[in-house]
Design a protein that fits this description.
Length: 203
Amino acid sequence: MILEPRFTDDVAELPTHKFGPASLTWWGIMGYMIVEGGFFAMSFAAYFFLMGHEQGWPPEGRAAPNLLWGTLFTIIILLSEIPNTMIKKAANAHDTAAVRRLMPVIVAIGTVLLIIRGFEFNNLNCRWTDNAYASIIWALLLLHTIHILTDWGDTIVLGALIMTPLGYEGRRLVDADENALYWRYVWLLWIPIYLMIYWVPRL
């Protein structure tokens, strides 16, 4: 006996994209952030382990990193959450025009942050080969710089795609929403790193 296939409904009207946990890429982003968080957690543990084995932090004869550039970086990256939140809200509201206007703003902010980061590296008052203290603060700053570069590059590509005809509008808006989520993760991670690099040595 051969059973004929039966279709109970027409799925043509189902949505082609979803935001949040209903999106497969959302789960991918969450998994990616968990893995990256593990690397940062190990770096934080290494920082405090090394600090516990030193008589001074930074070691005697070394000055703590200059506050100017790191603090300027922190202020700008915190303020970047304003356009970032606007992008996230516009994407969820399917306001493609607003997303198109705001994506270049985030790209420009990323460019400014990378320039400032160069000054940060130049004002750590140590070279990464000097000692354990120097190595760990350079490592922390480098890890976060890789995050900035990764998201900056992703935002450039996504911004270019958002400007194309609307054949994949829904999917691109989901991408913009998830890109905004990841940027939030990047600046939240910076807060403990900033404290460890610039303020813990001053305590």
